[in-house]
Amino acid sequence: MTRTPTKTRPARSKEVVTFSSYCSKRARRIEAIVRSFTAICCVGVVVLVVFLLGYLFIRGVGSLSWSFIFDAPKDRMTAGGIWPAIVGTLWLIGLVSAFALPVGIATGIYLAEIAGQSRPVRMLRIAIANMAGVPSVVYGLFGYAAFSLALGFGKSLLAMGLTLSCVTLPVVITATEEALRQIPKEQRQAAMALGCTRARTLGKIVLPTALPGIITGAILGLSRAAAETAPILFTGVAFFAPVATNVTQPSMALPYHLYIMATQPTTPAPHIVWGTALVLTGMLSITNAGIATWRSYKRRKLQW
Amino acid sequence: MKTFQRKSRSKTAAVLLAVALLLASVFLVAACSADTAEDTAPAASDTDDVALSGMLTIEGSDTMVNLAQAWAEQFMDENPEVMLTIRGGGSGAGIASLINGTVDFALASRDVKEDEFAEGAAVGVDIVENTVANDGIGVIVNPAVGITDISTDDLGKIYRGEISDWSQLGGTPGSIVLLGRDTASGTYEFFLEAVVGKDNEYAQTMRNLQSNQAIVDEVRNNPAAIGYVGMGYIVDDVTVLAIDGVAATAEAVNDGSYGLARKLLMNSDGTPTGLAKAFLDWVQGAQGQSIVVDEGFVPIN
């Protein structure tokens, strides 16, 4: 990388030409192999994703209808729709947003902007990294012991929401911290040089710039929460329940509904299984795509 | 200035860490003590109103979830103010939740065990067994196996692994594929006691499947498979074996001639009152029992 690009030719093409002209045949062969291997892997992943989504769509699209989305299950899960499960999942997303996002974002801000690099702070970071590595089924067990039993919330949306918040927290914290760290130092220095206080710099310069990254992390966390099955299995998800109207009730949820529909009912109803899978994936994909679009729009506006 | 700032920051962080640890340990203590001294009574509604309203949570046997859902659908149709929630998980899971006070009824496809009664009594939960239906366990094989009748004795030998090829019973030669339920299932325990023998164990080769439906699917697809399921799950394209010459029919379960029959229970903490009582009465009454018949189980009486 010490070579300086000439003015007549773009740097990249020059490097490639030089490389193949003075390297041995063997080195070139190795490069060809590595290139084609990585390319094949990449194509493989794309094919897999397209196949998965395509298959899901083809199998599931036939069962979509207004009544499938807005009706309750009927006749022992062989007919009707999935509305209580959709509402349950929306409740959970709402609860996780209410609990995990404020706490997670505040913790991320503290770690990135305020805490510094002292020893206890490093220990905090390690603790948070470990949180992300705990299997979700263990969170389920913890949530059952802590929220359902010790705090007496029983099997309810509240216990499920709090458990899922624990799963989501490390994702949100890490994303917030990373987003804040990516803001160039010069921006902070410029703000300070103009006489802004630390708080004002944070609120007016740093946070708005980091917002797309923070929101992305939040959405990733919420998507994970909405898709988790293990934590809610312990804490209150139901095989069958009417639409939940408050947080003390147990509720159905889409991922668990998918699981029981594929393994439990007397008379299998594959259209409900695939329809449920499509609705869950669709809900998350649409949110993710929406957020990605918004973020790239924001990014284009904020350039440095 | 700089050093001062660093120091004070690390101090704040240290305080935070300490507070976090303190909170965590308080939580731990609370969680541990809750295990031993759980005295919050289950949220059984004790309203004695005529117009039924409120919420009941029901959890347990996977054999019974579809039946319970059918009850719940119709009961909620008749009483729009009532919310019934059904969960599976297995008879053992339901009874554990009843003991923990998180459900109103525990569905069980086997009798409650002595140590479960004791565990309940230790935390002030008085488990009451309420029979809500009868069930026969059907032993099903793939039609390709070529037998239609089996003795309890031979069935025990198959499930203990002492008979491993269908030709030993006069069927199509081929090594037997043993299917059973997972250990949380009441059907697993019932079959163990009734067929395999209380002091014996299932053969190591048995595959533990998660649900009745999974067993039916596997028997349908595997030409050498044998499995056991609740009678409500039996479908046309598998062979249901007669046990000791008695076919698995509702009549045979009711008159006691079919050997592999059991009670289906909806256990409660104490004698149910209020909404719980109303629901139990309805289930045991004419409407509930006609749903039992629809679901392929055998009504009580």
Describe this structure as you would to a colleague:
- The complex is a heterodimer of chains A (304) and B (301).
- With 304 residues, chain A is mostly helical.
- Chain A has a domain at 83-254 and 284-299: MetI-like fold (Orthogonal Bundle).
- In chain A, 75% of the residues lie in helices and 1% in strands.
- Chain A contains twelve helices and two strands.
- Chain A has helices at residues 11-22, 25-61, 66-70, 83-114, 119-133, 136-150, 157-181, 185-193, 198-227, 230-235, 254-263, 270-301, and strands spanning 73-74, 79-80.
- A two-stranded antiparallel sheet of chain A has the order 1-2.
- In chain A, a hairpin with a 4-residue loop joins strand 1 and strand 2 (79-80).
- Chain A is globular, with a radius of gyration of 25 Å.
- The model of chain A has no long low-confidence stretch (mean pLDDT 86).
- With 301 residues, chain B is an alpha/beta fold.
- Chain B has helices at 2-36, 65-78, 91-100, 114-122, 152-160, 186-196, 212-221, 250-254, 274-284, 286-294; strands at residues 54-60, 82-87, 105-108, 127-128, 131-141, 149-150, 177-181, 207-209, 225-230, 239-243, 261-269.
- In chain B, strands 1, 2, 3, 4, 5, 6, 7, 8, 9, 10 and 11 form an eleven-stranded mixed beta sheet that branches.
- Chain B is globular and about 80 Å long.
- Mean pLDDT of chain B is 84; it is low at 34-49.
- The interface between A and B is large, with 39 and 50 residues.
Radius of gyration computed on alpha carbons of chain A: 25 Å
Mean pLDDT rating of chain B: 84
- State the total count of DSSP E strands of chain A: 2
CA-based shape of chain A: globular
The CATH architecture category of the domain at 83-254 and 284-299 in chain A equals: Orthogonal Bundle
Overall geometric form of chain B? globular
Order of helices and strands of chain B: HEHEHEHEEEHEHEHEEHEHH
The secondary-structure element order of chain A is: HHHEEHHHHHHHHH
The number of distinct β-strands of chain B equals: 11
Share of helix of chain A, binned: over 70%
